[in-house]
Amino acid sequence: MPEKVVTVDKDDCTACSQCADNLPKYFRMDDDGIAESHIDGEKINKAAIPDDDQKLVENEINECPGECIHWQK
Ligand code: SF4
Predict the structure, then answer these.
(1) Does the reported pTM lie above 0.90?
(2) Is 73 domain-assigned?
(3) Whose CA is nearest to atom 8 of ligand 1?
(4) Which of 5, 27, 45, 68 is most buried as measured by Cβ atoms within 10 A of its Cβ?
(5) Which residues line ligand 1 (CB under 6 A)?
(6) Per-residue pLDDT tens over the stretch 25-65
(7) pLDDT at 1
């Protein structure tokens, strides 16, 4: 499977911090308290997730209360 890029639709984020708490490797809260994806603090909101970690991200997509974490098409 190729890398897939994950992004947070900030308009729908409830700022619950769940994704950042569960998977800080790929999610963090911005200065306004809204989530965004990242890789080592870079690739903000366009983090390309390696094969091995895609299941972890998929879990956050499924558990996100705002239903606002998506794979980029
Ligand atoms: S889990 Fe969803 S709603 Fe909660 S902070 Fe992350 S992106 Fe926002």
Answers:
(1) yes
(2) no
(3) 13
(4) 27
(5) 8, 13-19, 35, 64-66, 68-69
(6) 999 999 999 999 999 999 999 999 999 999 999 999 999 99
(7) 63
Distance, CA of 43 to CA of 66 (rounded, Å): 22
pLDDT at 73: 81
Structural domain including 62 reads 4-67
d(CA 31, CA 53): 26
Look up the CATH number of the domain holding residue 27.
3.30.70.20
* CA-proximal residue: ligand 1, atom 6 (nearest): 19
Question: Residue 18: inside a domain, yes or no?
Answer: yes
Distance CA 73, CA 19 (A): 20
Buried b (16+ CB within 10 A) or exposed e, 20-35: beebeebbbbbeeebb
Number of domains in the chain: 1
How far is the centre of ligand 1, averaged over its atoms, from the C-alpha of 42 (Å)? 19
Give residue 5's pLDDT.
98
